[in-house]
TrEMBL record:
UniProt keyword annotations, A-Z: Membrane, Transmembrane, Transmembrane helix
Annotated Pfam families: DivIC
Compositional bias of kind Low complexity: 17-27
Bilayer-spanning residue ranges: 43-62
Name of the molecule in the record: Septum formation initiator family protein
Organism in which the protein naturally occurs: Microbacterium resistens
Location of the region described as Disordered in the Swiss-Prot/TrEMBL record: 1-27, 132-189
Cited InterPro entries: FtsL/DivIC
Biased composition (Pro residues): 1-10
Top-rank taxon: Bacteria
Length: 189
């Protein structure tokens, strides 16, 4: 068995020259002397066994933990997929309920198949507007209450100006001769 070294004595005269040099280096150096620190570590048998058990536990548990986290992510994705499917099923059931209503069926037959009842006159309007001139969908209605200005005169002026400058669905011909206007690109009949 190895002998433990004797503790250093308190008197400075009894120090070895190597110990004095080490102490001088420690006090003068800004960093820590790693050799002195590593040399001061003593490993017992119990400590080696515990360290090996910790390493073995980490080696066994890390892949298991990774598998667990991967499975939790898959479960969350599948639950979200199930929720989307349930929402789609609810929409389809609602549409099936609508098809049981005779008024809805009549409306769909008129819109999709252009059916009409005997004696009715049906007008089909061809959409001749430029796609850029078609108004956009309105913004969704907000839940907040906003106070509008109470001065109505500038608003009326802006409304009249906007109405006067707006493009109409069909432009009037420039002359009475039936010739198209200068900027009109529609072919003459």
């Amino acid at each position: 068995m190895a002998r433990r070294p004797a503790p250093p004595s308190a008197s400075p005269e009894r120090r070895s020259p190597q110990a004095a040099a080490r102490a001088g280096r420690r006090s003068s150096a800004a960093g820590i002397d790693a050799r002195g620190w590593v040399g001061g570590i003593r490993l017992s048998g119990f400590m080696v066994i515990m360290l090996s058990l910790v390493i073995l536990g980490a080696w066994v548990l890390v892949p298991t933990l990774g598998t667990y986290l991967d499975q939790r992510q898959k479960i969350a994705a599948l639950e979200q997929s199930v929720q989307v499917s349930k929402d789609r099923i609810a929409e389809l059931e609602l549409e099936r309920e609508r098809w049981n209503d005779p008024a809805y069926i009549t409306t769909q037959a008129r819109e999709r198949l252009y059916y009409f009842r005997p004696g009715e006159v049906v007008y089909l309007v061809d959409d001749d507007l430029d796609p850029a001139a078609v108004p956009r969908d309105p913004e969704p209605v907000s839940d907040t209450i906003e106070e509008k200005p109470s001065d109505w005169a500038p608003q009326l002026l802006r409304s009249l100006t906007a109405a006067g400058l707006a493009r109409t669905a069909t432009e009037a011909p420039a002359g009475s001769s039936g010739e198209p206007a200068q900027g009109d690109q529609t072919p003459a009949p």
